[in-house]
């Protein structure tokens, strides 16, 4: 049986051996994408998708990237992809109200939930610390959403529909 000082020396030796590994630098982040979006099937992506910084344009639509962060992937995506609904409603209201009035803007905004489609989801997972403490990891999740402007404009009273559609297309 070892004495207490012997155990202390062994612990110090082990700590000294592991210290360089813990101080060698941060692990690179891991990028993953859900394929297809909403499926729960996550695959390595290699890098942050280009659409995170610059959503691709498509005629007749508005595209939004929603972001959510937590220390756990399951929290970021636990209730589905981060939502862009509030951002889409605000964008629709801000475009339609000046061109076609508040009533048209309210009608268009009410149509947003049924006109919003999830296109892509991805995440960056990082180890911030090797310490076994809450918050030692960070997951940043992104979701690319597309708003069908024809569906939104169709909800606007006919007298204001053309003005609303033109405002949405800008």
Structural class: alpha+beta
Largest sheet: 5 strands, antiparallel
Task: Compute the CA-based radius of gyration.
Answer: 24 Å
Q: How many helical elements? A: 7
Q: Name the average pLDDT.
A: 87
Helical proportion, percent range: 40-55%
Number of domains: 1
Number of strands: 5
How much beta, percentage-wise?
15-25%
| N-end to C-end Cα span | 80 Å
Order of helices and strands: HEEHEHHHEEHH
How would you describe the shape? elongated
> Spatial order of the strands in the main sheet?
2-1-4-5-3
Query: pLDDT under 50 segments (min length 5)?
Result: 6-24
Commentary on this structure:
45% of the residues lie in helices and 25% in strands. The chain has one domain (30-169). It has seven helices and five strands. The radius of gyration is 24 Å and the shape is elongated. It is an alpha+beta fold. Helix 4 (85-100) runs antiparallel to helix 5. The termini are far apart.
């Amino acid at each position: 049986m070892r004495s207490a000082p012997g155990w202390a020396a062994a612990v110090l030796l082990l700590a000294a051996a592991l210290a360089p590994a813990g101080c060698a630098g941060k692990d690179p982040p891991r990028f993953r994408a859900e394929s297809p979006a909403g499926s729960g099937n996550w695959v390595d992506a290699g890098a942050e998708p280009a659409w995170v910084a610059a959503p691709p344009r498509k005629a007749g639509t508005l595209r939004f990237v929603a972001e959510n962060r937590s220390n756990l992937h399951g929290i970021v995506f636990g209730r589905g992809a981060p939502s862009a609904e509030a951002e889409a409603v605000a964008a629709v209201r801000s475009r339609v109200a000046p061109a076609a009035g508040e009533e048209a803007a309210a009608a268009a905004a009410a149509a947003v939930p049924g006109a919003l489609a999830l296109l892509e989801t991805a995440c960056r997972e990082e180890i911030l610390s090797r310490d076994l403490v809450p918050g030692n990891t960070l997951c940043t999740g992104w979701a690319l959403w597309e708003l069908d402007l024809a569906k939104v404009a169709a909800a606007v009273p006919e007298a204001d529909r053309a003005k609303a559609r033109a405002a949405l297309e800008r």
